[in-house]
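Chain X:
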Amino acid sequence: MNRRVVILFALFLAPVAVCSIGRTQEPSESNTKSKTKSATSAKGRSTTKKVDPNVVVGRVLDSTNGIQLFAPQSMTMQFGMKFNSNQNYCTNILATIPFPMDWPEQKVTVVSNQIPDQMATQFRDLPAGARQLVMKMAAMPPNTLLDLVVQVQIEKSFINPPPDTSIFRIPNPKTMPKELKWYMGSSPYIDAELSDIRKAAKKIEDSKPENAWQHVERIYDWVRENIQYRSGGIRQIKEALKDKQGDCEEMTGIFVALCRASDIPARCVWIPEHCYPEFYLEDEDGNGHWFPCQAAGDRQFGQMHDYRPILQKGDRFKVPEEQAMQRYVAHFLSCKQRAVIPGARDMEVEPVLDLGPLQAQLNALRQNAAQGQNASPVGAPNP
């Protein structure tokens, strides 16, 4: 065939392929999720537009009255992508992967990289808390293997809550920084306007919590008391509210929706095989702080003891290659080539995610998930 078509792959693979938790007196489960979509008529486009760093809210590394960092651990990890072309000559290749970035509890340093000579790369920051490694190649010969691997040093710290939680308040929605609007309202799969969400938020508010911290903790307790953990495919939070069951994504999404319905900014945090929420409060001086909590798993409110790297924070991303808002910034590949011969394979890509000292634990978690066994969160014991 001489007809030329565009092959587009969007890979939604690693960050929540397995959502594993451990709950006191309850059996923990594992959850395998993946979504793959393909088309033959779309072409990805890249942009080099710079993003105001102030848009990525929460990256200031001062803890002050906010979270308390301790027990930092430095680990060498690898991120990248492996390319395997088919019998066709591929041109106009564009690929992206999510790449870890600095956060108050995480410092990322690029140590070395393995980049093919014919490939151009750059980092691209998206509004609301995600970074991509963008890869471009003019052409790739048939039946060729190429690896792009970036080695990083990640220093990750545990988080404890502040010593005095009474000083915090809910920000005024009329005067809060405009960047926080990314973490208000509805997001893909998270509808903060649902009547059930509004009713629950009002009931919690009517319980007259003593302060903002207690207000958010009652939201947290409501989710854990009313939603039973159950692994399964990705769903709208409306469905989880209806049957009162969900995994880490649904439980996190319900917490986020309840916070937003209460005028409290909140967002999802994505780490390998899991996600959890963060909420935003201001201290008595008007300084804003993000606090994590574990919606699905052992009780951790205002704290997080997990060494897995943060891949991104947020749940409503505008990705240049996608028309709709994305709940998670996924791996992406597009290229132009002749139509694939019937029976032949498409061009293949495989994301590289090597967590170094955590990899063995992660592999065990995935194996347990595949066998339907209970699994505990990957991380390190409390020091």
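Chain Y:
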Amino acid sequence: MAVPGTQMIIIKLSKKLNSMSSILKLPANYYAADNTRYVFIDGSACANLDTCFTILQEQLSIPDYFGKNLDALEEVLADLEWIEEEKIKIIILHIESLPGNDPVKKKNFLEILDNADNDKIEIIYLGAVGNQQ
């Protein structure tokens, strides 16, 4: 659970990063500071789970062979050896807007994130209490 005030800081940081990336043509699709990589999943920007997989692939620098399915996501989250940062914070905004046309897939997607077998990963839900399906 995020500390009060953290949500606004992260939202502003995400917006600033997006605008800076487009202006500066940054090579990275993620933000990193203090040996932590910050990954942002905005539920309102995910039209379907494939979009969520693409966002994760870009921000986690997942290799092109990533299968973009739930099994592949579970496997890749357990690995992530190519990421140099010691910590990875996956910040989920607007969880209620995540694709809900298949509630089972949405539930499984969030469970895979929550139960990732990797000590580097921390999941932060902003504007939500726990894993809401």
